[in-house]
Amino acid sequence: MSTDTSERHGHYLEDLSVGMTAVYSRTITEADIAMFAGASGDTNPIHFDEEFAQSSPFKGRIAHGMLTASFLSTVFGTKLPGPGCIYLSQTLKFTAPVRAGETVVARVEIDAIDTEKKRVQFVCTCTVGETVVVKGDATIMVPRKADQRPVAA
Amino acid sequence: MSTDTSERHGHYLEDLSVGMTAVYSRTITEADIAMFAGASGDTNPIHFDEEFAQSSPFKGRIAHGMLTASFLSTVFGTKLPGPGCIYLSQTLKFTAPVRAGETVVARVEIDAIDTEKKRVQFVCTCTVGETVVVKGDATIMVPRKADQRPVAA
Q1: Among A56, B27, B73, B138, which is most exposed with the fewest C-beta within 10 angstroms?
Q2: Does 3.40.50.300 match the CATH number of domain B6-147?
Q3: CB–CB of A103/A94 below 8 Å?
């Protein structure tokens, strides 16, 4: 018999409606950039070599675009819809650089819900102050509460 | 006077042709998943709670989809085109789960080059054995060698 993990689940499809939003906000630090490089293997000097980065159009080191984008996954996986959802797809446009010390607000908003296919469309933005640094769309599959196994009393 | 960092640069637009490929391969470990969660804040129990994950359609813990996707950024930033390129956009479809201990091969291939706009289109896949786990497209801006400042002798 398996453990009842229903309390650990996030929102079900029935809980969701168009226009719902959630955010994850985070100040990107040098430590985060180093950790992300460790996990991903992306040691591009634009993130780590100030001399190289000064010679680039960014005029200094920047964070990995995929680190900023990963905050969208954080919102989906921990807040809206939260645990139990399945990440199907994501589009990303990297529209401005992010530097260590800057605070990113990753925001997702429900744009459409296909109740038949249990698919939820999200509009996603990451901003630093007023500047959009990442934008895109995501599709997430969200289970129906009605489809869950009844839990034994 | 700024340091000459030209040796640290990757490929220039003139070096690229349609059909060129590069890969980054990596065995995803529990440590990588923990590091990625630290950097991203994504502590979804599907990655960390075996009881919760057993109750999911994946029947066990899986790696973050964005961790696997980040290996594409690693190829771009370190190999092809390499340092000096600018990541403009990425699409991602998460087509199968990846588990700790599995080896991901992230592969990018040049699909088209717009020499006027200096934009290069890539087709991207991440595979575990024969299974495609992530697929998508990317657009990267690549500087022209001819546009670089001459370096003083």
Answers
A1: B27
A2: no
A3: no
Q: Which one of A24, A44, A76 would you mutate to disrupt binding with B, by most B Cβ within 10 Å of its Cβ?
A: A44
Report pLDDT for A146: 85
Which chain A residue has the Cα nearest residue B140?
Answer: A94
Spans of all domains in chain B: 6-147
Distance between CA atoms of A90 and A135, rounded to whole angstroms?
10
Beta bridge partners of B132: B127
Distance to chain B for A108, nearest Cα, Å: 15
Give the integer Cα–Cα distance in Å for A26 and B54: 30
**CA–CA gap between residue A13 and residue A143 (Å, rounded):** 6
- Determine, for residues A49 and B92 on separate chains, whether the beta-carbon distance falls below 8 Å: no
- pLDDT, one tens digit per residue, over B11-47 is 999 999 999 999 999 999 999 999 999 999 999 999 9
A86-142 pLDDT tens trace: 999 999 999 999 999 999 999 999 999 999 999 999 999 999 999 999 999 999 999
Q: How far apart are CA A65 and CA A74, in angstroms?
A: 15
Which ipTM was obtained for this model? 0.95
Question: What are the φ and ψ backbone dihedral angles of B124, each rounded to 5 degrees?
Answer: -125, 135
Closest CA to A66 of A102, A25, A35, A36: A36
User: What are the pLDDT digits (tens) for B82-128?
Assistant: 999 999 999 999 999 999 999 999 999 999 999 999 999 999 999 99
**A105 is written with which tokens?**
């607000």
Which residue type, as a one-letter code, is found at position A109?
E
Write the single-letter amino acid at B148: Q
